[in-house]
Amino acid sequence: MGILTNSRNPERPDALFQFTNGVDVDRHLAIQEVQVQKAWARALVGAGVLTAQERDSVLSALDAAATDVQAGRFEWRIQDEDVHMNLERYVTEKAGILGKKMHVGRSRNDLIATTLRLFVRDTLEDVQAGLSQLIQALATQAEKHLDVIIPGTTHLQNGQPIRFAHALVGHAMALKRDAARIQDAGKRAMESMPLGSAALAGTTLNIDLAGIAKELGFQGPTKNSYDSVGDRDFVAESLSALGLMSAHLSRLSEDFIIWASTPMGLVKLPKQWSTGSSIMPNKRNPDVAELTRAKSAHVIAAATEAQVLLKGMPTSYGSDLHEIKQIYLRAFKEAQAIFSVLPFFVRDFGVDEIRAKELLEKGHVFATEIADELALNQGVPFREAYAQVASLVEAAEEKAIQVHQLPTEIAQKIAPNLSAAFLKGLTAEACVEKRTNLGGTAKIQTSAAIRFLTNP
């Protein structure tokens, strides 16, 4: 098949338009672009370029463009290359020569740098809304299962008893940090307005850049036009924040996959947010958690991809920067997909409380409690107490029982300072309720942490 040529320029092949145009990505930025174009049109009146009547005609055309974009009837042409030229063509069709006048004093370079900042800010707000919903779901489940005690683990080995709510709150705390980072990234995206930088050297128009910046929500105009047109730090920073968030979402998902697994059987998957097997009617699969774990990899990869793209670029503007929009949009869409289901998956899972009690009978989860008793209340140096309890665990292993199930006479031969009363009163509830310091797993502290999540 031969290369077709474009009718507007027979020497310019369509393949070039296909390669260089950014319409597929730019269409997602159209609403923010209209905001920027309108602010510029208003300021052109003060600069003496447009009359008030001309401004109103341009604004009306831009409003119509936004309406058509949102309705899905805007005609996107790859020959117009990007969102800027598509809008200019549209305004020209609606308002005649005014569409050609409105680009004075600016460049597509400072336009896209400004529009992209607004887009990043808006999309990060969407992510924050999803995070808030997920944190609320975790807090609600923590409150609901406040009295369920499970083995806390390190290295996936049972360690000490904790409230199940304590584990859920732990995930929510990480997500709360993510929300703060994402909010900061959104604020930094709006610190400096590139509009007015033109191609690279700044505009010659006597135009109120500070007023435009205020209208669009920026802290102020740029202080260096050369840097501003090529600055995509705000994209890379936002992707880094999204990447770390995705790592936390993946860890949350991994825990749910383990908790719901047949060997553990702690969590009951919600029927409406999980699927069965095509051949095995006995199975239910944690698809939401597994796909979240997978999709998080795409977001993390996007953060790396953006930095790799930026590292080889010279100062100022280059067409490479078109690609970073695609990288960011892909990551945002993955995050958006995750938040469309994960909060509801978390909201609706169940807990097998009988199984939770059974799990406490694995891994000698009271061993540390016995060591603390010897060291803190019986005057045994901790290392000696540790060694004595290690011997108690070995003795229990030989009898295929848990350390707290050892007969008192056997336990006291190894650890003479242990009292029968202490061993008799050794329960999971007693263990967790001793942890009353800030951040501990006692009910009073776990409840306080839940309140912090919902009412900081």
Question: Top keywords for this entry?
Answer:
456 residues; mainly alpha; Fumarase C, Chain B, domain 1; Fumarase C, Chain A, domain 2; Ribonucleotide Reductase Protein R1, domain 1; 3 domains; two-stranded antiparallel sheet; disordered N terminus
Structural overview:
The structure is a single chain. With 456 residues, this protein is mainly alpha-helical. The protein has three domains: 14-104, Fumarase C, Chain B, domain 1; 109-145 and 157-201 and 225-358, Fumarase C, Chain A, domain 2; 361-454, Orthogonal Bundle (Ribonucleotide Reductase Protein R1, domain 1). Helices cover 62% and strands 5% of the residues. It has 21 helices and six strands. It has helices at residues 14-20, 23-26, 30-46, 52-71, 83-95, 98-101, 108-144, 164-189, 209-216, 225-228, 233-260, 287-311, 321-339, 342-348, 353-359, 367-377, 382-398, 408-414, 420-424, 428-433, 443-454; strands spanning 149-154, 157-163, 267-268, 275-276, 284-285, 350-351. The strands form three sheets. It has a two-stranded antiparallel sheet with strand order 1-2. A hairpin with a 2-residue loop joins strand 1 and strand 2 (157-163). The chain is elongated. Residues 1-7 have low confidence and may be disordered.
Structural class: mainly alpha
What is the mean pLDDT? 94
| Biggest sheet character | 2 strands, antiparallel
**Order of helix and strand elements from N to C terminus:** HHHHHHHEEHHHHEEEHHHEHHHHHHH
Estimated radius of gyration:
30 Å
Low-confidence stretches: 1-7
Number of strands: 6
Query: Based on CA inertia axes, which overall geometry fits?
Result: elongated
CATH architecture of the largest domain: Up-down Bundle
CATH superfamily of the largest domain: Fumarase/aspartase (Central domain)
Overall tally of domains: 3
> Gap between N and C termini, in Å?
64 Å
Helix content: 55-70%
Question: What is the tally of helical segments?
Answer: 21
- CATH class of the largest domain reads Mainly Alpha
